[in-house]
Records
---
Amino acid sequence: NAGVTQTPKFQVLKTGQSMTLQCAQDMNHNSMYWYRQDPGMGLRLIYYSASEGTTDKGEVPNGYNVSRLNKREFSLRLESAAPSQTSVYFCASSVRGQGYFNEKLFFGSGTQLSVL
Amino acid sequence: TQLLEQSPQFLSIQEGENLTVYCNSSSVFSSLQWYRQEPGEGPVLLVTVVTGGEVKKLKRLTFQFGDARKDSSLHITAAQPGDTGLYLCAGALTYNTNAGKSTFGDGTTLTVKP
């Protein structure tokens, strides 16, 4: 049981290049999320998918696009990378249990992206 | 402006010492979660608190939710090197907020020296 798997682990891009970050979960979770983590700024939500077939913008969506390919996979695409997108990117998934507060986020191990 | 302010930002202590880290806001949260993140890994959920004044214990870690549900603290007793990591708090503003849409604080980096 791998949990949430992100690829690649590290990536270096030149300004203007494009790339897709991949995320897959094997826990049959409905909801999936993409975050970026910058020093001193915590985790900021980029996009999320509450269920298969739906996606919505989070706090910082500009410069990114997402695809919920199926229930397992949620990818994040940078169409034209900029130095401001240098960050660590995390994918997460969750499922609601009984009650409002019985929900747990499971995170991948992250992708460290540098845009030169 | 960060909705959740964590303090201190950095903390370095010797093994065996006690410590407290704080998560403060001017907003009321319906629930608050604490995570620990080790270098090169994603955050891992430690606890969720939902009731004002609630105290939860997880071995040597004690979590408290403020009476007004605007703040929380994490107290570690007899810290060990394995406690080293980034501690994040995350708050949900409404009862229906998905955990993934919670507001995250900017974290406290704890280093416990042997």
Note: The two ends of chain B are 36 Å apart (CA to CA).
---
Amino acid sequence: QSVLTQPPSVSAAPGQKVTISCSGSSSNIGNNYVSWYQQLPGTAPKLLIYDNNKRPSGIPDRFSGSKSGTSATLGITGLQTGDEADYYCGTWDSSLGAGVFGGGTKLTVL
Amino acid sequence: EVQLVESGGGLVQPGGSLRLSCAASGFTFSSFWMHWVRQAPGKGLDYVSRINSDGTITQYAGSVKGRFTISRDNAKSAVYLEMNSLRADDTAVYYCAKDLHILGFDYWGQGALVTVSS
């Protein structure tokens, strides 16, 4: 059971928009920055969003992040088939004294 | 170009030990926190440990505390994970990762597979 809760799967058509939620508590999301990662099969995760809503260089603005209270959301617009992947949220948990991740969300672009 | 290259993975019996290494290049290694994250086969990401830039602060997930030790050698641009009393549920691909800012890992290694089995 993951500390952060994500939906197991989401789906949408090419060109559409999708959001992925990440729910936590005051000890993690509520008081720490959230990051989002994309993992394609057989590869290492790739950073999409850090500090709740910042994009590293090279990440298109189709990807966005937001945070409100103890929840965070990843948004992806203009879906492409190449966006099919597993997506993970992550943050620090001040009570556990360790990093925590969500269980991952599998995105299917229909 | 930033590169992180893990080594030292392999098959080990339950109760055994293994030391993973992560060789870094392409950035000022001594300026950044470094982390280990693992992923069991077919499962999600699982946080393991972190170490600050000069090696004076280390933190661990509860599942590995007391069994794993993270360290670094800034002269060699390397971070290590010493794993003792290994259990079957430690079987995973272990990634080292560079911290961009507060658990935003902007670079990851290719991963090292650790299999704990008799």
Note: Chain A is about 0% helix and 45% strand.
